[in-house]
Amino acid sequence: MANDDVRALYDDRPYPPEGQAPRSNAVSSAWLRGAVHPANAPLRDGARVLVAGCGTGAEAEQFAAVVPKGEVVGIDNSAVSIGKARALSGHARYEQVDLEDAARVASLGPFDFISCHAVADYVPDSLAMLRGFADALTDSGVLLLAVNTPHHPKQRVQRLFEALGEPGAFEDSEAQRSLLELAGAWMGPVPGVGDLGSLPAHVAAADLFPPFAHHRAPSEWIDLARAAGLHAVGLRRGAEAVLAAGEQVSALFGLGRVELGRLAHEVAPAASAWMLFSRQELREPRFSEDLGTWTPFADPSVPRDQIPPLTGEESAPRSLTVAMNGVGVQIPVTALGLEILRRSDGTLTLSELCDDWTAARADLFRLFHADLLHFSRVD
Ligand SMILES: C[S@@+](CC[C@H](N)C(=O)[O-])C[C@H]1O[C@@H](n2cnc3c(N)ncnc32)[C@H](O)[C@@H]1O
Fold first, then answer.
1. Which of 68, 83, 267, 374 is the most buried (most CB within 10 A)?
2. Which of 10, 12, 121, 125 to mutate to test the pocket of ligand 1 (most atoms within 8 A of CB)?
3. What is the pLDDT at residue 175?
């Protein structure tokens, strides 16, 4: 069963502290909203959502605002956190549940979407937790697992403390603050974590010095989830890697979404990983092959009616902006790519839409990975 130190930590320091929004935010992530398409089904209004490890409820209430006609259930094994969540509650329902209690988690389902954000690292028996999620999901339901990776600065900061004679627990003393500042000066800002020297006390306690059970790499999570009956269907790092690839993007055409995400995590590891899992396998086009029989449809977030129809050169450079990690990222596309996006309403195959779509292959690949263009195919 769950680690008593973890329960004690969150009974003592419930997360997020009163009046504060969670630090990294699943609900407002454009990547998440796009990646759970078609038709954002798992997060459509009316959906049932489980917030697994809901803390004091801020995340669950945000999901409740996304699905006002749906139902949001928040569970956590910290009694203090659940008490605070219930006191705050607008629309979500809360229960004290240990995520290792797979039968109990499954009994709360079925859910269209499960968010397990910044929680799984604390749960010792990952397989039991994942089995509970698999049994609690609908057939088309999606699980978001947002975890820290072995590249999180935690071990390195703890090593610094240990070497300089500071205790391994965060006490927020002057000496510890100055060591955190030193670590921050040495490491620089850590993507996804920020400047170590100015971390709020609750984040330093819960993120850098917590009784984490483990730090797994994304490929380990993917294998474990497979054993629990869940298929990986998305990794945010893959989308980021494609958008950073520039001219070299065509070298990646042969890779599927998950292969690409795994590779990106191996080549350019990040401190955290966002993964999506489903009971159904992913059906996706391969960009190294003929895509003509696939039907593209633009994400509902794309204002297609505001994209002007193509005039002039098909190869003329254009760009689109998409939010990634809360930052606006520019996606380079040609005028032809933009025209295909404008006309992608889900009724015509790519060959029916455009004879020379191959000229826009790199555009389509980028738009697909940025979750602005989806593809379906009827066999
Ligand atoms: C960093 S907080 C994340 C809260 C919320 N998901 C968010 O992102 O804002 C981690 C939460 O996981 C909960 N937790 C840790 N181990 C758990 C377990 N075995 N069962 C249920 N909840 C657990 C803690 O009590 C804590 O509230």
1. 374
2. 10
3. 92
For the stretch 128-169, pLDDT in tens is 999 999 999 999 999 999 999 999 888 889 899 999 998 888
pLDDT digits (tens, 9 = 90+) for 187-227: 988 877 888 988 888 888 878 888 888 889 999 999 999 99
pTM: 0.91
Tell me the domains of the chain and their CATH numbers: 4-150+215-278 (3.40.50.150), 154-208 (no CATH), 295-376 (no CATH)
Contacts of 246 (CB under 8 A, 6+ apart): none
- The string of DSSP letters for 197-239 reads GG--HHHIIIIISS--S----HHHHHHHHHHTT-EEEEEHHHH
For 35-67, letters b (16+ CB in 10 Å) and e give: bbbeebebbeeebbbbbbbbbbbbbbbbbbebb
Q: Is 277 in the pocket of ligand 1 (CB under 6 A)?
A: no
Q: If you measure from the C-alpha of residue 59 to the centroid of ligand 1, how many angstroms do you get, rounded to a whole number?
A: 11
Output the pLDDT for position 41: 81
Weakly modelled stretches of the chain, pLDDT under 70: 1-2, 38-40, 324-326
Atom of ligand 1 nearest to the CA of 16: 9
Tell me the Cα Rg of the chain: 22
Residue of 350, 332, 363 whose CA lies nearest to 253 = 363
Helix axes 257-267, 236-244, angle to 10 degrees: 80
Are 288 and 253 spatial neighbours (Cβ–Cβ below 8 Å)?
A: yes
Helix axes of 79-88 and 58-66: crossing angle, nearest 10 degrees: 40
Query: Can you read off the two tokens belonging to residue 351?
Result: 């060959």
